[in-house]
Amino acid sequence: MKLFGNSGSERADDPDTKDEGTLAEQGYKQELRRDWSLIHNFGVSFSIISVITGVTTLFEYGLTTGGPGVMSIGWIVVSFFTLFEVLSHGGLQAVDSSIWTRFETMADRCARRLKVGLAMAEITSAHPTSGGPYFWAAMLSPNNELAAFFSWTTGWINFVGQFAVTTGITFGCANLIATLATVKGTFVPTPGKILGIHAALLISHGLVNTFGVHILRYLNNSSITFHSLGVFAFATAIVAKAPTHQSAKFVFATF
Question: What average pLDDT does this structure show over 126-140?
Answer without folding.
Answer: 77
